[in-house]
Amino acid sequence: xASKVKTIFANMSWLMFSQVLTSVLAFIWTILTAQYLGPxxxxxxxSAVSISTIFGVxxxxxxxxxxxxxxxxxxxxxxxxxxxxLSLKLxxxxxxxxxxxxxxxxxxxxxxVIGICLLFAFEYLIKTFHDVFFSSFQAHEKxxxxxxxxxxxxxxxxxFIVLVIVTDxxxxxxxxxxxxxxxxxxxxxxxxxxxHIMKPKFTFDFSFYKVLIKAGIPFALTGLFYTIYYSIDIxxxxxxxSTYDTGLYNAAYKLISVLALFYSIYSAVVFPVMSKLFxxxxxxxxxxxIKSIKYLSLVTIPIAVFTxxxxxxxxxxxxxxxxxxxxxxxxxxxxxxxxxxxGACSLILNSSHEEYSVTKIYSIAAVFNVILxxxxxxxxxxxxxxxxTVLSEILILILELYxxxxxxxxxxxxxxxxxxxxxxASVVMGLVLYYFNLNLWIAIVVSVIVYFALVILLRVxxxxxxxxxxxxxxx
Length: 475
Prior knowledge:
- This protein is mainly alpha-helical.
- The protein has helices at about 1-55, 55-60, 65-75, 80-105, 110-140, 145-165, 170-195, 205-240, 245-260, 260-275, 280-315, 325-330, 335-350, 355-405, 415-435, 440-455, 465-470.
- It has a domain at about 1-240.
- The chain is built from 17 helices and no strands.
- The longest helix is centred in the first third of the chain and has 53 residues, at about 1-55.
- It is globular and about 65 Å long.
């Protein structure tokens, strides 16, 4: 048991370190790339990444999610699973490229944009080969090698992007920077696989391909709806507005994605503490859900209020060319509040064996989002896309709360009162910022002081919260 706990802790530590480092490096190269390319080319960059991701299901067919489970329960046949998946991916790669080429021709984009999209499609394919080896690392609980692969990949991505900027190779150079970094990561993943687990090779068992594809289809459908929901807006802005508008939207959206790191840190730090404090699994599940909503709201709501006032100042880190994206950021920031709460709702639904309900909810949200974008983007461009994203997150929350109510896990009135207190503290903080109209850096300090003073004054923290805080601080 002690050995098992040690393994879990080591895996979590490696994963946490790689996630934090990846987020920091990604934030740096995102800023550098946007500043270097400018809104139009940065819009093409965003469109290319979105296209490669949306059609990514045709390169994977959900096989990797199935692979982890299959290998974990059948180590003796690991060679068969891994080697046939590697060879199957060669055929899927051809299918993937064919689908993308046809789709780009239908969209009517010019040759330059199509060329950039194909380069990023190739980069995405390399990532999918990473996933084959990651599946094995996860099944063997050797997350260390997955983390090292990600560290190599992200460090080299930043290095190569800096070299491209210095040598002025443009957007094509940026695409090759991503490709070369991914190839380097793949080389290490193959090395780690050969040394610590098995020697991978291509095995062509066409009858087993059917088993892999059939098992992966349910995961593929779920992944398809997720990717459509999170990526289709970039493509639609390019199609119905311009690459300049896409660049503005992509710049704001990238800053939103940086905040996703907080959810990873929260999950890794707070949930294990609650596991120690509450031993009954059902009580723990319900408590963790309530506390997750409370803690995530405690952080995201004031951030959303602050960004609504200072979106223009924050977006200025990209440079003066992106100043119009400030209003986009001020709208999109509200997705963070719903995004994190929806994550907590999805967690309790998945834990309660309602994973198909989550898939249905995101399917509905994907269709809703596409319809809203078709209505709003032609008339309101990036602002319409931003509103569509926020409304889609609200729809997900409503549907998930409905399902949570059906399984009897709906939070009681105490959580509503806590969120109301958080909203009051955030609104008062916003009024202070509006009244004094402070410089960005002074405003950050003032808002933190005002907000936490109100949180203490309104007694947002209860006895359970104080106990959890003490455990986290090691007291």
